[in-house]
Amino acid sequence: MNDLSSTSISPGTSNAPKTQAGADLISDSSTADFQNDVISPSAKVPVLVDFWAPWCGPCQQLGPALEKIVTQAGGRVRLVKINIDENPELASKMGVRSIPAVFSFFGGQPVDGFMGALPESEIKNFIGKQLQLAAGAGGNGQDITQDDMNAQIDQALLTAQKALDENDVQQALQIYGLILEQLPQDVRALTGLTQTFVKSGAIDQAKQTLDLVQDADKDNQAYIAANTALNLAQEAVEHQEMGLGETGDIQARIEANPNDHQARMDMAIMYNASGNKQKAAQALIEIIRRDRDWNNDGARTKLLEFFEAWGPGSAESIAGRKLLSRTLFS
After folding, report:
1. Which residue segments constitute the domains of the chain, with CATH numbers given?
2. Which residue from 13, 25, 26, 267 puts its CA 20 to 30 A from 104's CA?
3. Which residues pair with residue 82 across a beta bridge?
4. Are 67 and 127 in contact (CB under 8 A)?
């Protein structure tokens, strides 16, 4: 996170009466006015959208802190507050599953967000980051270009991927959902949302999402990775349905017969499904070490599927490929 001090925000107080300018910067909105209050103004400056409710204690803590820091920014960022009790359709459409939830829009697109009542220092860092992004894209009160908008989408995708990598499934779901509201056929968002559903165990929703990818995009590496991840998740579900999903039982099979390669394969599938990629790779490497030709080179083939699902540039894939090379050529 970037420090807000670099954005030169002047001091202010949260309980000071709003000037007319301050009132313009902080407003309530609704489903009907979202386009005018959020999307259109975000063409020039970042607009923060705070989803809240009167009964939400953390919302009452976050709201004044947000207002204070937005006021300090002196017009370089706006705050729009959405009462989810009065606008449930909008909250649902935006994928809001818990409150408070704050999203940053710039160039008509969602670019970042957070959930929960953050301390004031972290709010300053968050808003400072939005101001720096806007400055980098020429967001100085002038309409931004299509290239700037594309850059903001790229940033939102990076934020969603970072949330997914950190197992913040709710944050990833919300950001991918917001991107798809603007770009419903974006293969990066569709595949990212698919991977998020896979990680959360929502296999049916993952399949429905991946089915939305257009045929022309199915040679995209992101689609290939998401499709492989979905297939592996479905395989893990089938193992569980056949009673093969208990790692303790599988481990007992391996201990009884260290050359039970099918047991190690089952263990690798379950480790991968639970997100333990390192152990999943190690289980398959052990099969290869003991009997590379088992099941028509099945362990190596499965390991390559794992690498494809994890992404060729992921740390786990790189480490796994090094281990595979050492095993094959030692």
Report:
1. 4-184 (3.40.30.10), 243-329 (1.25.40.10)
2. 13
3. 51
4. no
SS3 57: helix
Active site residue 59: yes
The radius of gyration of the chain's CA atoms, rounded to the nearest angstrom, is: 24
**Strand, helix or coil at 216?**
helix
Contacts of 68 (CB under 8 A, 6+ apart): 12, 13, 14, 120
Half-sphere exposure (Cβ direction) of 267: Cα atoms closer than 13 Å: 25
Q: How does DSSP classify residue 238?
A: H
The predicted-structure confidence for 15-70, as pLDDT tens digits, reads as follows 333 433 444 789 999 999 999 999 889 888 899 999 999 999 999 999 999 999 99
**Model-level pTM?**
0.59
Q: Which of 9, 45, 48, 59 is catalytic?
A: 59
Catalytic residue, candidates 56, 131, 270, 324:
56
Specify the DSSP element, H or E, that contains 52.
Answer: strand 47-52
Segment 181-213, tens digit of pLDDT? 778 899 999 999 999 999 998 999 999 999 999
253, 260 in Cβ contact below 8 A?
Answer: yes
